[in-house]
Amino acid sequence: MTVDGSLQPARKLTFIHTVATLEPMFARLAEERLPGWEIASIADESLLARTIENGKVVQETAEALAAHVQSAADAGSDAIVVTCSTLGDVVDTLSARTATPLYRIDRGMAEKAVLHASNIGILATLPTTLDPTTRLLQQTADRLGRRCKFVACLCSDAFSHLKSGDTQTHDALIRSDYEILSESVDLIVLAQASMARALQSVSPPRPYLTSPELGMDYIADLLRLTRVSPD
After folding, report:
1. What was the pLDDT predicted at 173?
2. pTM above 0.85?
3. One domain for residues 98 and 152
4. How many distinct structural domains can be found in the chain?
5. Could you tell me the residue range of the domain that residue 153 belongs to?
6. Which residues of 205-228 are buried (b: 16+ CB within 10 A; e: fewer)?
């Protein structure tokens, strides 16, 4: 494949998903921000299912993710993005020893949050996502020299309703906890991309951030700065 009719091959970006239904959304975001790139994906929902079952990312899951990263690299990827925030800590560890640029999707969201607010709420429906998101935000604040207070809130029953197909109850629970959390913070971070739909039909009392768009903005900027982009 070539770019703009030239002899230069298209760069390749590979997503690794733990929720297969997110694949079209991320492909669209990548095509908008990185025109001319070839977009590929790997979906393995067992990574998230195993983490939920064990209550943490176990070694087997970390090794399976590492295998997917290596597979993407072997297939000619110029950059790899893991779209599951639950696996963010593992992505950070792998990126330090992976030749192909490897990114977690939530870093752009974390940077915007700590740069725009000092009293930040973190809302999640899974404890396995809440903890790594909180750590990322604190690490980002420390790195950027920002003094931030973080208030974490787990909407613990919502995910089970989402899995059973009861999206109305899932959304209602998120809206309820969002309104309560809004009373004590200036901005709220939604730890999972699936949560944003719950707030799309209401006027939220506080601004909120989600990872997909902000993450792809951040990653696309990095790829252009490092001249990985064919532009």
Report:
1. 95
2. yes
3. no
4. 2
5. 107-210
6. ebebbbbbbbbbbbbbebbeeeeb
Residue owning tokens 């009373």: 183
Please list the pLDDT of the chain residue by residue as tens digits (231 residues): 444 445 567 899 999 999 898 899 999 999 999 999 999 999 999 999 999 999 999 999 999 999 999 999 999 999 999 999 999 999 999 999 999 999 999 999 999 999 999 999 999 999 999 999 999 999 999 999 999 999 999 998 898 898 888 999 999 999 999 999 999 999 999 998 878 888 887 888 889 999 999 999 999 999 987 654 444
B/e letters for 15-33, b = 16+ CB within 10 Å, e = fewer, are bbbbeeebbeebeebbeeb
CATH number for 36: 3.40.50.1860
